Amino acid sequence: MVHITSLFVIALVLTFALIGQLIINALQITVQSFMLGGGILVMVIAVSMLQGFQGKRLDAEQAALVPIATPLIVGPGTMATLIVLANTDNLINVLVAGMIAAFGVFMILNYSNKIANLIGDNGVQAVSRLMAIILAAIAASMIHGALLAWGIAKS
Fold it and tell me: What DSSP designation does 1 have?
């Protein structure tokens, strides 16, 4: 399951980094609009992380692609972030970062039981909250970038 999930994550990262611009062009959406909408979605995800995810139990094989690979790992926020970064930063950097992140996903999924046992329940909660704060900062940056581009905010 870890291998299938990781390969699907890589496919999603490549798809949205490489053809994300085509997607937003086809939908006639500006990068700034995607930044704002994606930033709001990423902020909602960060708030959800702080509240704790609650979900159903699923068969591991069925869950490898949906909901684990998408939307939990590569969800709307990640898709928005990839499209925005591919349009605002060096594409090679975005692809390399995406592959590093995908490798990190593989390692974490592969060793998740050992990591959870090592850091304990309190450690898992602390890391989750830290990641939520980092995600909220990324969301704020995306929202601010859109507002700057429209001349609504100042730097």
Answer: -
* Position 53 confidence tier, pLDDT thresholds 50, 70, 90: low
**pLDDT exceeds cutoff 80 at 88:** yes
| Chain segment 9-30, per-residue pLDDT in tens | 999 999 999 998 898 889 998 8
Nearest to 80 by CA among 124, 154, 141: 141
pTM for the structure as a whole: 0.71
Domain limits of the chain?
2-149
Measured CA to CA, the distance from residue 10 to residue 4 in angstroms comes to: 10
pLDDT of residue 119: 95
Measured from the Cβ of residue 23, the count of other Cβ atoms closer than 10 Å reads: 14
CA 56 to CA 12: how far, in whole Å?
24
Q: Which of 86, 114, 78, 91 is nearest to 2 (CA)?
A: 114
- Distance of alpha carbon 63 from alpha carbon 66, whole angstroms: 5
**CA angle, corner 108, sides to 41 and 7, nearest 5?**
75
Cα gap 3→29, rounded to integer Å: 34
